[in-house]
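Example record for the data management plan.
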Amino acid sequence: MPKSKRNKQVTLSKTTKKGRGHKELIINGIRDAAEKYSSIYVFNFQNMRNSKLKEFREQLQSSSKFFLGSNKVMQVAIGRSSSDEIKPNLHKVSKLLRGDAGMIFTNLSKEEVERLFNEFEGYDFARTGSIATEKVELKEGPLEQFTHDMEPFLRRQGMPVRLNKGVVELVSDFVVCEEGKPLSPEASRILRLMGNMMATFRLNLVCRWGSEDDFELYIDGPGDSDVE
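Corresponding structural encoding:
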């Protein structure tokens, strides 16, 4: 018996994979920036927040250009060895593009770049799996920061609560999270309700390149000794 065509699934949305053309655009953009700007920095980041990074990029857009994405693509763009680097000693920069990293090409002075990166911090609510930076414990008694209609939701998060004359009440002490331990989905939701921002988004400078003889390491980490 022939298969019915009535139940055939049809995909209405189409997605285009980022292929070779997209990679070439990034490579060409990086190489153009290497000609336009006087210095290059590698940075790494913690607790990435796109909105915070966007604010920082907009602050520097008149003097600098940021690149984040595939480390391998960025390495290809500037050269992975002394034989294929686009400028002398850029292979040293390439070797430091590891993990959560990016590059900034800029005409700002070294002192100004260091000041901007050192001063930049963004705070946000920690996500599930993030490491708690402190112990948060709620004591038995009224929880006046929560409205009465939130009581069912709080119970679903594992909190021992009840309504007492329209007031949410904790019937026993409750530990939301322990310092140094990963946050559960429930802990993450409770901290958000409490307005407790545990995630700090930072950008840390790793190295600076200014010319063939102007290369500086900011972070001495595992594997940095092989930057030759």
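Summary line stored alongside the record: Helices lie at 20-36, 50-60, 71-78, 90-94, 110-119, 151-156, 185-194.
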